[in-house]
Amino acid sequence: EDSNSTDSAKAPKVNCEERNITGIDRFMLQILNVSQDLMDFLNPNSSDCTLVLFYTPWCRFSASLAPHFNSLPRAFPTLRFLALDASQHSSLSTRFGTVAVPNILLFQGAKPMARFNHTDRTLDTLKDFIFNQTGIEAKRDVAVTEEDWEGPLPSVLTKGIDWLLLFSLLFLASFVMYATVRTESIRWLIPGQEHEHQE
């Protein structure tokens, strides 16, 4: 019985169909733009596996993960790797439960099978995650290079406007101004005012 339990522990959780890589000499991460839909890149009728990264260009954790994720296609040439800006694909983020970024999901066909849940996001922990889920071993000679720091996924934070935060601040400021103007209607918010009104 013990030998069976060790065998089942070593069995991959996701049985990935490895893609044919003959004729492909450069393995790269593909980043989806605003108009591209993730579901167009995932084949629901196949058992091939794709690792998808949900990131934002202004998130420092996404930027520090970028060079490690950029090197993964060379480590696992038989798998596919995609990345998408979660702020531009908010419906997908909601659909797959992306609450925070970076978020990494392993898909088999079009179905999410596993989520990377480690706080230590390095090439080695990503390799271990893929191996534990699929049983596919990484190429041993792959390491993070200077090219991986340059792209395709940006490892430098971009400055951008967080429109949701800006809208929230404007809403809050307008509410405070409205409340100040309409003090009579919000006397109940000011401590001690309700007793003064009863006298």
Please describe what this structure looks like.
The protein has a domain at about 30-150: Glutaredoxin (3-Layer(aba) Sandwich). It has helices at about 1-10, 40, 60-75, 90-95, 125-135, 145-150, 165-180, 195-199, and strands at about 30, 50-55, 80-85, 105-110, 110-115. It is built from eight helices and five strands, in the order H-E-H-E-H-E-H-E-E-H-H-H-H. Mean pLDDT is about 80; it is low at about 1-10. The longest helix has 19 residues, at about 165-180. The termini are far apart. It has a five-stranded mixed beta sheet with strand order 1-3-2-4-5, with helices on one face. The radius of gyration is 24 Å and the shape is elongated. Helix 3 links the parallel strand 2 and strand 3 (about 80-85). With about 200 residues, the protein is α/β, with parallel strands linked by helices.
Summed up, what is this model?
By secondary structure, the chain is an alpha/beta fold.
Summary keywords:
199 residues, alpha/beta, Glutaredoxin, five-stranded mixed beta sheet, 8 helices, 5 strands, 39% helix, 14% strand, elongated, disordered N terminus
Beta-strand percentage range: 5-15%
Question: SSE string, helix = H, strand = E?
Answer: HEHEHEHEEHHHH
- Low-pLDDT parts are 1-8
Question: What Rg is obtained from the alpha carbons, in whole angstroms?
Answer: 24 Å
Main beta-sheet strand count, sense and barrel state: 5 strands, mixed
In CATH, what is the class of the domain at 30-149? Alpha Beta
Oligomer: single chain
Number of extended strands:
5
- Principal-axis shape: elongated
Termini distance?
A: 82 Å
Structural class: alpha/beta
Mean pLDDT: 79
Count of alpha/pi helices: 8
| Assigned CATH architecture of the domain at 30-149 | 3-Layer(aba) Sandwich
Fourth-tier CATH superfamily name of the domain at 30-149 = Glutaredoxin
Q: CATH topology of the domain at 30-149, what is it called?
A: Glutaredoxin
